[in-house]
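Subject: for your reference before the review

Hello V.,

The reviewers asked for a structural picture of the protein, and I figured it would be easier to keep everything in one thread rather than splitting it across files. Below is the amino acid sequence we used in the manuscript, unchanged from the supplementary table.
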Amino acid sequence: MLRSVEVTTVLALAASPSHNLHWRDTLELSLDCFVCQRLGRTTIFRLGAERAVCSGDRESGEHYTAGRLASFDHTIREAQTILRAVVDYWWAPFHDEKRDQPAAALTRTPWVRHHLGYLCPDQQESGELTTQTNIVRPHSGSCPYCSAPLIESHEAPWIRLLT
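And here is what came back from the structure prediction:
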């Protein structure tokens, strides 16, 4: 069955836009994988890629799975950057033998991580920040080169099963 998940993330921006903060084209989402038949696998989606990568487990390792980043858009509004992404992936029912639990279309504890990039104008160095559902909030991120504040996260990303 084809499933779609919408992920929305809102971050407060620092007062200075000098670091050219931008969303990276990578999103990580926890999903129950029908290929390796394991629950809650970190699945990596890249914009433009025709398939996703499942982290697998210690025995099988990572592998490709049927999924793609179908939509990836952002807006800047009132000192906030808002990312909305839609992920399409294939899901089929299975039973995780190792955990003795059935799979779910959206894993029981959904988790997402977004990546952001920036360029420090003082040091001409690039860097990356991440935000994810399971961090203590409020959470802030700053440039390690010049200590300028870049973002602040007040709420976890929203994950919603569409189909």
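For the response letter, the relevant points are probably these. The longest strand covers residues 2-13. The chain is about 0% helix and 60% strand.

Happy to draft the paragraph if you're swamped.

O.
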